[in-house]
Amino acid sequence: MTDAVVTMPFENQKLDNHISVVVPISDRRDDILNLYRDYEAALTESTKSFDFIFVLDGDFNDTFARLQEMRAEFDNITIIRLARQFGESTALNAGFEHATGELILTLPPYYQIEPSALPALIRSFHSYDMIIGRRWPRTDSLLNRIGTRLFHRIIRLMTGYTYRDLGCGVRLIRHDVVENVTLYGDLHRFLPVLANYYGYTVKEVSLPQSKHDPRVRLYRPGIYFRRMLDLFAVFFVVKFTKKPLRFFGLVGGTLAIIGGVLLSGIAYQRLFLDVALGNRPALLLSTLLIVLGTQLIALGLIGELIIFTHARELREYHIAEIVN
Amino acid sequence: MTDKSTPADKHIDISIVVPLFNESESVMPLYGAIMAAMAGSDYRFEILLIDDGSVDGTADIIKDLAKNNPLLRLIRFRRNFGQTAAMSAGIDHARGRIIVTMDGDLQNDPRDIGKLVSRIESGADIVVGWRRNRQDRWLTRKVPSRIANWLIGKVTGVPIRDNGCSLKAYRHSIITRIPLYSEMHRFIPAMASLSGAKIEEIPVRHHARMHGESKYGLGRAYRVLLDLLTVKALISFSNRPLLLFSLLALPPFVLVLSGCMYLAYQFIFTTNDYVVVPVSLILQMIATCTFLFLCGALGELVLRAGTTRVDLFSRLTAELNDD
Predict the structure, then answer these.
(1) Which among A299, A316, A320 has CB closest to B181?
(2) N- or C-end of chain A: fewer Cβ atoms within 10 A?
(3) Using an 8 Å Cβ cutoff, are B86 and B128 in contact?
(4) What tens digit of pLDDT does each residue of B243-300 get?
(5) pLDDT of B312
(6) In this complex, do A308 and B179 lie within 8 Å of one another by their Cβ atoms?
(7) How far A148 CA lies from chain B's nearest CA (Å)?
(8) How far is B129 from chain A (nearest CA, A)?
(9) CB-CB: which of B281, B287, B308 is closest to A310?
C-alpha cells in the first residue's frame, strides 16, 4: 500500500524511478521504429531506467515483424500480441500486467504529441499519482476543438471533475493506480476519472500537439454514440455504485408522481364534470407514466439486490495508509 | 476477497472506532477523553481512528500521537468516502471482540463506553446509544430525526428511538457479518434483528458541538426514504425476490382481470363495438405484469449468483455462544 517515493529536487535531474512504457498498437499507427527512437530519446533524457512494452491489439503482421527486428537490436522491448482485436482498454490492461516499473507511461502509437515535450511532463511528476497529457497548443480545426470542449463540459457536469483532453494517450501513472482501478470495455479514456474517483490525485500537463495528429478527425456517428454511452456508464459507476435505487427511484418516482397527478385530474373530471373516459389518450399517458415509474423502481430494487448480495466483495473505500 | 474483515484477536477486548473528517481541533481532546475514560478499566483496548480524506492535517496529528502509543491505529483514506465507509473500514480492521463506534466531533462522551460494553458482557449483541438530551438545533436536526426514527421503526419493525447516534457497541462476530455500505449504518439494528440478535438501547450523554461545524443538513429526505424502501425490501424479500415482484405485479393483474371481465360483459350483453382506450389499457397492464414478474425471476438469479444472503447472517445466533 505504500506509495513510490518520487524525488525531484532540481529542474534537470533525472527521475530515479524505473518507468515501464506501454504502447497499445491499433489500426492507427505510425512507423514504429521512428516513433520508438523519438520516445526513447525523450525518456533517456528524463529517467534513469525504463523499458518498452508494445501491445499489439490484433494481428498487424507488418508491425509485429518490425518490432521483432527492433527487439534484436534493443534489449528493453517486450512484445505482447493479443489473439484478436479487443480494444484499447484490454491492450492497456495486458501491458499493465507486464509492467514492472514503479511508474507506467502510456504513449500513443502515432505522432499525437511532440515527443520532445515528454521530459517536461515526466519531470512534473512530484506528489501526484497520475499525470495526463493535454494537447496544447492544438493544431486541428476549430470544429474539432468545439467538439472536444463540449465533450469535456458534459463530463464535468456529470462527474464533477474538470479535464480538458481525455483523448490524449499520454498518461504517467503510479503502478499502485492500475492495481486498483479496473479497466474494461472502452473505459480507458476515463482512466483519470476513475482514478480521481478512487481518491488518487490527477494533474493535467500541456504537450504541444504534433502536426501529424489532426489526420482523421470526423468519425462515424456510431462512435459518438458509443462515447456518450461510456460517459453514462462512468457517471453511473461514479455516482450510484452502491445506491442504484437512489437513481432509479428518483427518475421512476418523479414519473410515477406526474402520472398520478394526471390520473387524479382525469378521475376528477370523470366523476364531477362528467367528461367521458373511454376515448381519452390522456388516460393512457397517465397510466403509462405510472407503469414506467413502477418498472424503473423495480429495476432499482434489482440493482440494490445485486449490491446487497455482493456487499462482501465490494469495498467502498480505498486506504492510502495504515499506521500501527 | 470473500471475507475482508480481520479476525478477532485474543489479546484485545475492545476496539474503539472513530471516523474523522477535518477534525484537527477535536483529535487531541478526543484522544485525551478516550484515554481518560479507559484509564480505570481492566479491558485491553485499541483505538482505531479513520481519517476520511481530511485536508486540515488531521492525519499528521494522529501520526504524532501514534508514535508513542501502539494502541492507537490510523487508517487514512485516499479521499473522502463518507461516514459509513469510514465506519466499515474501522470495523473491517478492528481486532477486539467488542467494537465500539463513536463520532469524532466530541458530541459523544467516551465515558459512556464502559456502560455500553457492560451491556454486551451481560448478553446483548448490539447496544445502541440514545441521546436523550440531544444538544442540537431543534428545527433542522431534532424534528427531522424524530420523524425519521419513527418512520424507520414503523417500517423495519425495530423501534429504536435514535438511529442516528453513532455511539454503539457491537459483538465482533455479529457486526462483521452484516453488510455495511452506502448509508446503511442507520439500519444496522434493523438488519441485525433479522438474525435474532439481541438489541438494547441505553441513554448516553450528548454534548453541544465545540469545534467545527455540523456536516449534515436537511435536504436528505428523499435519500432516507429511498434507503428505507431498500432496507424494507431487503429485510422482507431478499430471500424471495420473486414474491416481492409478484406482489408489485398484483395491482396491474387485478386491473387486467377486471378489465377483461368488463369487456366480456360488454361484448356479450351490449353492443360489440369496444372502445380503443380500455383495450390499450389492458394490454399495457399485461405488459407491466410480465415485466414485473420477470424482474422477480431475475432477482432469483441474482440471489443465486450472489455471496451474501440474509440467512447467512441469520445463522450467527447459533454461533453466539462461541465467544
Answers:
(1) A316
(2) N
(3) no
(4) 999 999 999 999 999 988 888 888 788 766 667 777 888 899 999 999 999 999 999 9
(5) 66
(6) yes
(7) 28
(8) 26
(9) B308
